[in-house]
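Researcher: We're teaching a course module on how sequence relates to structure. For the next exercise, students receive a sequence and then see the predicted structure as tokens, so they can try to spot secondary structure elements on their own. Here is the exercise chain.
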Amino acid sequence: MKRIKVAGVIGAVGLWLAMVLPGLSAEAFKVGVMDQQAVIEQSKTGKRALEELKAYSSTRQKIINADDLELKELEQKIQDGKLTDSARQEKQNQFQSKLEAYQRRLADFNREIQQKQREMVAEYSKKVHAAAQAVAEKNGYAAILDKGSEAAIKIVLYHQPALDVTDQLVKEFDRQNK
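Model: And here is the predicted structure for the students to work with:
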């Protein structure tokens, strides 16, 4: 009895596939590819966000550079042969304390920057998704795949250049995110 049911289900699925597959032509299943990173880097909104992230990093780097300079100056004072042993010990204690604070600050800044990058990627991935959906619906694409990059995972190993919709996505992304 079970064999008859399984055979019936398989037969029904086979019949459905036989009816549906011939209707799926190459035009009915239109696919595009895009470079999500390029969409962010080339769009006006993405460029602005990247500049903001760069400015944020730059201000943090200036603070780190000032701390670094202060540590070097303190280290030079420690090396000065004119200091008494107690003064040298005091400077070494200051140096150690400042070095620990410097290392904590550097680690904190790195975490902050990484967090901002993650937040930006998450936010802009959603926006790129919305732009991709709009381009797909407007142009009849069944799917738009992200090509990936050499630095991450290369998702699309080969595609015909005519399938690349990155430029369309940049325009749509800018239109949606003025």
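Model: If you want an answer key for the exercise: The two ends are 63 Å apart (CA to CA). Residues 71 and 157 are 49 Å apart (CA to CA).
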